[in-house]
Amino acid sequence: MSELDLIFNRKKKEESIKEEDKKPEIEQKVEEKKEESKPEGIKAQSNVEEIMRKFIEKDPKIGIWSYPAYLLLQYLYNTIPGFKMSKTAKEALERGLKEMYPDLFQIAEKVAKESGKI
Length: 118
Description:
The protein has 118 residues and is mostly helical. It has 6 helices and no strands. The longest helix has 16 residues, at 40-55. The protein is elongated.
């Protein structure tokens, strides 16, 4: 289960573990945060920001496995002079994530800007 799934209490269909002692440490922290007296929206956003800040100093490289994307990028790289594969992949990934998770992407941009990364 990804950390985003844990934050929003989503569970994969095939996972049915409900015992408290088997929960990952991060899920327990999320549940503890929910018990605080802040309004629900503020708690969720501050918890997301806190988790994202843990990763801000790590290397931001992402690996993907996609034959269609690989083939398309290789074609463009080999047919367009000066084509930047990683720049295009970055823009496509960010555009897709912004569309799929607009609220989380906005928080991620805020955290990155505050940390001087963008």
